[in-house]
Amino acid sequence: MDPELEAFVPLLQKADLTDPAADRENYAARAAAIPAADISGMEIEDRTAPADPEVRVRLYRPIRTRGAIVWLHGGGFVMGDLDTDHPFAARIASASGATVISVDYRRSPEHPFPAALDDTYAVLKWAAEHATELGIDPDRIAVGGHSAGAGLAAAVALRARDQEGPSIRFQLLNQPLLDDRQETWSQRHFTGTPLHDRGTITKVWQHYLDSRPATPYAAPARAADLSGLPPAYVATAEFDPLRDEGITYALRLLQAGVPVELHQWPGTFHGSLAILSADVSQRQTAELGAALRRALAD
Description:
The protein is an alpha/beta fold.
């Protein structure tokens, strides 16, 4: 493990997701401890996107922005909201120059699949239909997220393809949660990794699926056909149960003819990006921003 990250491991509290309310409070406390992002020269606005029910979003508009990304926070579909993801969403906007549309999707177990997907798809359609009003180019809209949010982004891309929905320029998938089956080598062997492990992920899927069979829109790794999807940047962490499903998904996208950039970060673990003082975390954030900037360029 990267020594700058390893020094923080004893301080990290792992969520077991047996008490979602308590886990959300702890998650929010950890997020509040992250140093604030520089938002100078950036316009931030809270809006609602029409849906049933309406979906809260927070827009981060850097100067001279054109493209946009529908951005989805992590937290295992259970934790996280606009406030906990504020530092990261602001950094993505700053690093990429894109308008970040952060989505406050409904969370499980109170709202299992497909609630979060429906919310996200509604925001994607709203962004495309109101692009002029929002000051963005409708041909330069990406989807992306971290962990469960990255899995949602991949699912939205599948749904938009299948339903001939809004055009998606790019997928930015950071440490994506994609496969409920938990059969990969990293899922079977990483049973004691920081922040989350195989047991935590089992709970994530139990809450999200609510005892129903998984479809490709819930677990994108189950999709038989990945052709026709938007180009993707996939980032994985070495000591992460999700590592191998992310790598496998990237390879399958490549084999289906989808342009892919795959970056496996050595010495990292799931969520270690929040340790901002580490050099590897700074490089990860810069790479995510640069990948999005390139994808949305003219």
